[in-house]
Amino acid sequence: MTHQTFQPAIESASIPDIKTFQNAKLHQALAYLKAKSPFYRNFFRTRGINISKIKTIDDLVNIPVTTKKDIQEQNDDFLCVPKNKIIDYITTSGTLGEPVTIAMTNKDLDRLAYNEAISFTCAGGKQNDTYQLMTTIDRRFMAGLAYFLGIRMLGAGIVRVGNGIPELQWDTIHRIKPNAIVAVPSFILKIIEYAEMHGIDYRSSSIEKAVCIGEPLRNMDLSFNTLGRKIKEKWPLQLYSTYASTEMGTSFTECHEGQGGHHHPELIIVEFLDDNDNPVSEGGLGEVTITTLGVEGMPLLRFKTGDVCLHYSEPCNCGRNTIRIGPVVGRKNQMIKYKGTTLFPPALYDILDNIDFINNYIVEVFTNQIGTDEILIHVGSKVPIESKEKDIKDHFRAKLRVAPMVSFHHAEEISQMMLPETSRKPLKFIDNRKNS
Asked: I want to staple 92 with a disulfide (CB 3.0 to 4.6 A). Which of 53, 191, 197, 246 is the partner?
């Protein structure tokens, strides 16, 4: 795959032109699925779907959605190529249940690289940048590989340090002097803490910007949340949020305006659906539902990701006219109904991130004796803070009107719970509900 630019012209085209472009791409995707996908060929036949009647992306509402359960139960039937064409096998993290396998061909890896090249460009990336990757590239993880391939296509430098080990992160920064990092936001706070404890002048280091993954940096109004503010107050980096999932093989990345992650019309069709699979209007929360474009190995049609977001359609000041996605408010399967209040875990995280004497935490949800949701916050600190239980609960009551149960642990114990050996990213939410 060869491209002359990493800011595609279609992203600054008019909204009608973007729609016309996507309609043509949709026709190609549907024809490919009918010809190559055992799952979708049977899906169309058993549901009486005539793809020739799907003229535009607005007609997609006439096709039932695909769910993670479909892929879990019929994983191999989604494969559209012989197994000898598969180059890389990836699995999802299993946040919403049993992980699924995504198989990628050479063409898919090229598409993945292109996605990241245009995404890093959106986040101010240039050929003379050097990125330090604070993410794993092994353990069947798509993101770390994607960042490597995309930065390579961009022509920028890469330092593959991996996740964890603050000492090694700072040693690498001093030795190689990268100007950018790719990291989970909460880990940025950890390397700041390490620097402060060891007399490292991190504000004068070579790092100027951070591409942040895995955790939201912004509130629903697109202002920085507690985590984002804490990083900016300590270390005035340029922060860029990203949103992606393994199944879509595409990311939505902020530009310098910080007004949501930009859609790449060449690579994906995106819808925002309610519980009845109908589109929500702008300003309403909807589940991100995607149709992949240009995927060869395991393309998906109207796949519900489980992520609930806002979306924005007005043109961005950066010159792009694409849809933008706000931060993930929560995952559909992680919604908590607690004492008459509906919550998503990120609302709890934001409160906990704002309490200075808490070093780390895990949110556990379980079914209590009367069959309703119960929340237990496992709080980690380096000094005893059991006397602060009322303060913690008061923070929750002030923001959410309800207060969860709290248990206290040493910060090191919580750190070990958050990063079990098989985990590829920090574990902050444990769902022990019956039939969840």
From this structure: 246
Domains detected in the chain: 1-331 (3.40.50.12780), 335-432 (3.30.300.30)
Lowest mean pLDDT among 12-16, 49-53, 189-193, 328-332: 328-332
The 3-state secondary structure of the chain, one letter per residue: CCCCCCCCHHHHCCHHHHHHHHHHHHHHHHHHHHHHCHHHHHHHHHCCCCHHHCCCHHHHHHCCCECHHHHHHCHHHHCCCCHHHEEEEEECCCCCCCCCEEEEEHHHHHHHHHHHHHHHHHCCCCCCCEEEECCCCCCCCHHHHHHHHHHHHHCCEEEECCCCCHHHHHHHHHHHCCCEEEECHHHHHHHHHHHHHCCCCHHHCCCCEEEECCCCCECCCCCECHHHHHHHHHCCCEEEEEEEECCCCEEEECCCCCCCEECCCCCEEEEEECCCCCECCCCCCEEEEEEECCCCCCCCCCEEEEEEECEECCCCCCCCCCCEECCCCEEHHHCEEECCEEECHHHHHHHHHCCCCCCEEEEEEEECCCCCEEEEEEEEECCCCHHHHHHHHHHHHHHHCCCCEEEEEEHHHHHHHHCCCCCCCCCCEEEECCCC
pLDDT exceeds cutoff 70 at 187: yes
pLDDT of 151 > 80? The answer is: yes
The set of residues, in sequence order, having a beta carbon less than 8 Å from that of 314 and lying 6+ positions away, is none
Q: What is the pLDDT of residue 3?
A: 40
User: Among residues 74, 69, 64, which one has the least CA distance to residue 96?
Assistant: 69
* Spacing of C-alpha 35 from chain mean position: 31
Residue 38, pLDDT score = 97
The pTM score is 0.83
